[in-house]
Amino acid sequence: MSTPIYLTASQCQSLLTSQDVIEQIEQVVSWDAQGLIRWPSPRNMNMRDVHENHYHLKACILDPLGIAGFRVVAHLATEENSHNATRYVVVVDAASSRTLAFVDETWSYAQRTVASIVMAARKVARRDAAVLALVGAGNLATTALEYYAKLFPLREVRVVSRRPATREALAQLAESKYKVPAQATDSIEQAVRGADLVLTATNAGKALLEIDWIAPGAVVATLDTAEPGRALAEGADLFVVDSREQLQKELVELFGAQAPGWVDATVAEVVGGRHPGRTSDDQRALIVTQGMASQDVALAYLACTRARERGLGMAMPAGGA
Q1: CATH hierarchy code of domain 116-288
Q2: Beta strands 285-288 and 219-222: pairing type?
Q3: DSSP state, 257?
Q4: What is the pLDDT of residue 181?
Q5: C-alpha dihedral over 126, 204, 207, 156, to 10 degrees?
Q6: CA distances from 199 to 67, 135, 178, 265, 270 (A)
Q7: pLDDT value at position 82?
Q8: Measured distance CA(198)–CA(157) in Å, rounded
Q9: What is the pLDDT of residue 206?
Q10: Which of 4, 131, 291, 293 could, after both became Cys, cross-link 316 (CB 3.0–4.6 A)?
Q11: Do 229 and 213 meet the contact criterion of CB atoms below 8 Å apart?
């Protein structure tokens, strides 16, 4: 059995491309739809300390790859997306139960987070969706722009954020790197009205959108369950999540006991054909994802495999000898 290796975030970045991330996520969602992923119950363990800092543990077994994985996260109450957060994936060989790798997922976390929600948006968006509104201009929004540009034929990008400098910089990036006309606005309503695609990626922790701002046929994607607001969560024509179980508690806390019943489908159900997804061009769709441990584990395993092929990674002590 090979010695376990430790991979840094920068090594993962050198080993994986955005196309790799998309392909791995699509593959894992397909496996989930086929029932080829084993999940613990409950799927995630959440704790908070006296400082209200967050601790998460998620796990899964990917039968097609013959591996198991554990995702360990700790972050400050106010800095979930900080590079200072603790984010590791432990990859284990399922047959022997031996550790294959410890992977710092600081880089791959942002990639997986936005790639999974943009991939889901593509599954339920109209074919002609081309106007993107980004609410937020931080690391996740910047990463999301790359994936939207890769998966959609964008013809316009609108960016709104609290600070003029950040929204202007992201709009300039859209034009210079992705060759898409872009504008920075100081109004969420101005950015969102008439957009085909909307992504909220902030740390506001509160409702940011009004349902009347969302055009018929638009797809709203969010990384925070609170940001779409109650009216949109309840009134969306198509409400898609990555996991009913993972989101149930949060939906109840935000919107009440009836809120889990508003969910129409999971991403895996749409991909696997158990739900038709969009059934008319004027449906307003809402996608809320928190990310699945299966995606993190698959990406970590791919990075581990490539690292061994290239002689990368720091060898770690193995066993109790």
Answers
A1: 3.40.50.720
A2: parallel
A3: T
A4: 98
A5: -30
A6: 33, 6, 17, 19, 20
A7: 60
A8: 10
A9: 94
A10: 4
A11: no
Number of residues that make up the chain: 321
CATH class of 5-109+293-315: alpha beta
CB count in 10 Å sphere of residue 239: 22
Rounded to the nearest angstrom, the gap between the alpha carbon of residue 303 and the centroid of all alpha carbons in its chain is 18
% helix, strand, coil for the chain, step of 5 = 40, 25, 40
* Burial of 243 (C-beta count, 10 Å sphere; 0-12/13-18/19+): buried
Cα–Cα separations (whole angstroms), residue 135 to 104, 190, 268, 296: 28, 11, 26, 25
Low-confidence ranges of the chain (pLDDT < 50): 321
User: In one letter, which amino acid is 310?
Assistant: R
Amino acid letter for position 223 = L
Can you give the C-alpha Rg of the chain in angstroms? Answer: 19
Rounded to the nearest 10°, the torsion over CA 136, 142, 147, 152 is: 60
Please give the distance of CA 29 from its chain centroid, rounded to a whole number. Answer: 12
Four-point Cα dihedral 166, 152, 9, 134, nearest 10: 20
Contact between 89 and 70 under an 8 Å Cβ cutoff? The reply is yes
Q: How many CA atoms lie within 13 A of 200 on its CB side?
A: 28
Q: What is the DSSP string of 153-167?
A: --SEEEEE-SSHHHH
The 8-class DSSP code of residue 261 comes to G
In the chain, where are the structural domains located?
Answer: 5-109+293-315, 116-288
DSSP 8-state assignment for residue 262: G
- Rounded CA-CA distance 197/132 in Å is 5
- 127's CB contacts (< 8 A; 6+ apart) are none
Angle 293-310/18-33 helices, nearest 10 degrees? 130
Say whether 116-288 and 5-109+293-315 share the same fold: no
Question: What's the maximum distance between 2 C-alpha atoms anywhere in the chain?
Answer: 64
Q: Coil, strand or helix: which one is 50?
A: coil
pLDDT of 320 reads 54
